[in-house]
Amino acid sequence: MNESRNVLEAPGATAGRAVGLVFRRQATAALRDPGPHFVLPALPALLMTVVFTALFDRIGDAPGYDAGGLDRSHAGGYDAFLIPGVVMLVALLGAGATSASLAADLRSGYFERLRLLGARPGTHLTGRLLFEAVRLLPGTAVVLGVGLVFGGDNRNGIVGLALVTMLVAMLGMAYSGVFYTVAIRTTDPQTPFQLQPLGLPLAFLSTALVPLGVMPGWAETIARWNPVSPVVDASRQALTGDPWAGELPGAVALLAGIIVATHALASLTLRRRLAGS
Amino acid sequence: MVTINYAVGAGPAPGSGQGSPAIEVAHLTKRFGPAVAVDDVSFTVEQGEIFGYLGRNGSGKTTTVRMLATLTRPTSGQARICGADITDARRVRRLIGVTMQEAALDEAMTAGEHLRFVAGLSGLGRAAARRRAEEVLEVVGLSRDAEVRIGAFSGGMKRRLDIASALISRPPVLFLDEPTTGLDPQSRRAVWEEIRTLQASGATVFLTTQYLEEADQLAGRLAIVDAGAIVAEGSPRKLKADHGRTTITVAHNGVAGQIESTLKGDLLADEHLATDGSGRTVITLSSGTGGERALELLARIQGAGISPTHLAVTETSLEDVFIRLTGTAIGVGASGSDGASGSDGASGSDGASGSDGAPDGTGGEDRR
Ligand SMILES: Nc1ncnc2c1ncn2[C@@H]1O[C@H](COP(=O)(O)OP(=O)(O)OP(=O)(O)O)[C@@H](O)[C@H]1O
Ligand SMILES: [Mg+2]
Asked: Signal peptide position in this chain (chain A) (predicted)?
């Protein structure tokens, strides 16, 4: 066995390769356990699509209703309003599934073992982050598909759908940093479930489900500041208005900023933890 | 069985200092708050050795391994692995393979997935990682379980898989923290075999254990640690010679007095007689003596016309050495981990060794 000559044949993977390996590990685990990774995120959004379109069909007649600033003639009914908003729930409810294995790795000592192999610790966050984006795709597709069947508007065709999907993925990535930070601190594999309730105010106190005009004053104030609102507005525009107008670049920039910020926080928390031993 | 050539034929690792010892430790100390977990330990392990680190629960074994493996920063002191200072974590990590006390694995993965993951993160390409994973699985005898989920593995299999992961990058130095604790005797022997194979292929092994027999069987040299500090160091044979005592157990028909009066004038200052629980006379020989001295004394007994009903000459066990040096038995397993078990029969081979704890001044069990 000639290759055995070189003792130092394994100097540690490059960052790119390590990220790919971590991604793959997550993907394999998710395919084995599709429930929390693929199915769960889509369920609340699907439920609300069905229930809300049936219940609130006539909300458009309510005083103060304004379909998210869209031209009424284009905006159509509540169905058309709801779908691009409710799809964001895919990223908000059932979020952060990959933080479970991060916590478990840290708790069991597996992380420490992997760390000795030479690849940078941050690659374990990045690989998971990328998988968070990918795992939301099936749920997003299903919600959009069902939504269109239930009367959603899709005048921009594939471009609109692609843009909305991208926004969901980015929102999922941005939000996952919060889960990683908590998972690193607590090393509790139940982290995704424990933080689950946090998604509710983020979703409901935004323009995702109802327009600002019909909210009580306090809720409106929160919704105006909720970072989910501009993302929803961009999504709505992408699906039912002019995709490239106003909202989209701002929302993408905002999400990119949050992704960087929450992951910087997670990385810092991880570095602190590793240095503390 | 696949043989891995660890260091054989390998050029000197960059900066690893050809011919420098595998592990050099000087005054290594670790405090957790006021508590001293590792207390000023110094030792050297040459390349190709199996070095045992023997101590009871809480004696600082894991903490020592963690410091040498760059996972915990020492409070003070220095250490080098193949010449690389442990403060240079990146360099040291390329030189070592580590298994911690509790096998750290992801139970949702299969053994093969885990090893390919580890190999990939170590820097091997896809094909090389696959090949390497197969090789190390074969080394630890798990080839047929490659695609089994680790969650379905027994404790012994997990331990062997854990060792396999430490071998992936063919590190010249291996740290195995209690690799056989909790295994049944058969699995333990299998792990021992693997460790011997590793040594035969050129690896240096730093092995912590609380099993005296394991240290005795495997380690070329060993350190006995107590409360974080090394209390003795050397080959098992040397430790036994330095600190152990051979005993002669004589079973007879109530002639203890006669034996005593026969030997009285012959006993050296540190030799003594005692009677054990079954009325047998136990003669503890001077330290550093063995068979020859036993024959001398037995000749006296024979000369006095005493005929024993049964006779046993027992060489010191490492356990006797351990008790002598640390004040208590090691208390392996769940029971009796603290103290008192040093006194009787439960320990050594055929009961004879147990009785020598009592006399000799140091015998007090509540020294701690
Ligand atoms: N992270 C830590 N914080 C505080 N104290 C610690 C820490 N790690 C170890 N200790 C203490 O240091 C001492 C040595 O522990 P260590 O785990 O090194 O012993 P050990 O010989 O490996 O024991 P065992 O046989 O039980 O594994 C113990 O008293 C332990 O309580
Ligand atoms: Mg330990």
From this structure: none
